[in-house]
Amino acid sequence: MNIDTDKGKFTHQEILSQPEAWAAALEVLTAARRDALALAPARRYGRILFTGCGSTYYLSLAAAARTQELTGLTCRAFPASELWLNPASSAGRIDNPTYKTLLVAVSRSGETTETLRACEAFLEAGRGDLITLSCYAEAPLAKMGALNLVLPSGQEQSVAQTRAFSTLYLGTVALAALWAGCTDLFEGLARLPEAGRRLLAQAAPVAAEIGPDLSLDRFYWLGSGPRYGLAGELSLKMKEMSLSHSEPFHFLEFRHGPKSMVTESTLVIGLRSAANGPHEAAVLEEMRALGSRALDIAESDATVCFEAGLDQAVQDVLYLPVGQLLAFERALARALDPDRPNHLDKVVHLSRR
Ligand code: F1P
Fold first, then answer.
1. Which of 69, 255, 312, 317 has the maximum number of C-beta atoms within 10 A of its C-beta?
2. Is the pLDDT of residue 344 over 60?
3. In angstroms, what is the span from residue 191 Cα to ligand 1's centroid?
């Protein structure tokens, strides 16, 4: 971190305090366990929709993939603006009143206009029930759901979400584990804070080495399954904090055209999974052969290794601090302030309904 200025002091503190934020959130989620189980979707709903905006839309993509994998229910994710303004092509027609939907709305602020409008439209149309996850109890969204999970430890000063994202995402993983009856998985979440502290200590020097390399001019974040949503979020972090060209792709999709963009000034970041590691490692090797730098993040045998022995569903949270620190270090190297990204406000309030 550049100690000569206050630039990024909030972002840095928020990234480094994530393990403590996760521990505090798990206390809230454990206390809400019975309420969450009372809405267990398998018995009541035909499908689950997840929604948010910006970071919380990417969170919804990751949450939908993980929840579908664990519960077997059909889960989809849409930007809140789509559920609000294009309901027929997103939420779908209401032609089967017995076909109830559970909507999970995620928002750090609990005030984003599109998210509020999407939830109002969903409830007014009688589509089903709403669960909200947010960080501020007094915000409008935290009063709209049949269940409102508020995780104050995700609150942040900086505009670009880091601690808020990982804490709210942890909330969706906890819900999925409870709904799927995966008690061991839910209880395994308690090992995350310690794994996170170890990871931050390992990732910091790697980010401090790559971040200042301003010869890099494009970043591609590769992730599959729930990790595609996380790749989308980390790509957004790199854009918001360092004003760099950055894009997410499903791992093997990168071969189908986007790899044409690979140059020696490229960094490909792989959120490599345990299940498909060899297929994913092959993509990274091919990109290295084309001249790209590659940052491999995985449980083992990678540039940054978790070595936590956690279930993949629990471990997914651990990819986030690595990418956040990389974006943070690059922002400082470019003399930008990650606490105040270009053109962005902390919350998007739309004046017109
Ligand atoms: C949603 C959001 C953020 C983005 C920026 C503007 O906020 O789009 O994802 O990074 O802060 O707001 P929220 O609904 O999660 O509060």
1. 317
2. yes
3. 28
Per-residue DSSP letter, 221: E
257 CA to centre of ligand 1 in angstroms: 30
Q: Whose Cα sits closest to atom 5 in ligand 1? A: 346
Strands (E), the chain: 47-52, 74-79, 101-107, 128-134, 147-150, 218-222, 245-249, 266-271, 293-298, 304-305
C-alpha gyration radius of the chain: 19
pLDDT tens digits along 13-48? 999 999 999 999 999 999 999 999 988 876 789 899
User: Which residue out of 61, 106, 108, 240 has the highest number of ligand 1 atoms within 8 Å of its CB and is therefore the one to mutate?
Assistant: 108
**Residue range 192-333 in CATH 3.40.50.10490:** yes
Q: How far is the CA of 254 from the centre of ligand 1 (A)?
A: 27
Give the pLDDT of residue 96.
Answer: 64
- Residue owning the nearest CA to atom 2 of ligand 1: 54
Between the CA of 348 and the centroid of ligand 1 the distance, in Å, is 7
CATH of 9-191 given 3.30.70.60, 3.40.710.10, 3.40.50.10490, 3.40.30.10: 3.40.50.10490
Extents of the domains making up the chain: 9-191, 192-333
Residues touching ligand 1 (Cβ under 6 Å) are 52-56, 107-109, 112, 115, 159-161, 344, 346-348
> If we measure between CA atoms, which residue out of 7, 92, 23, 107 comes closest to residue 58?
107
Residue 160 has a pLDDT of 94
Per-residue pLDDT tens digits for 177-198: 999 999 999 999 999 999 999 9
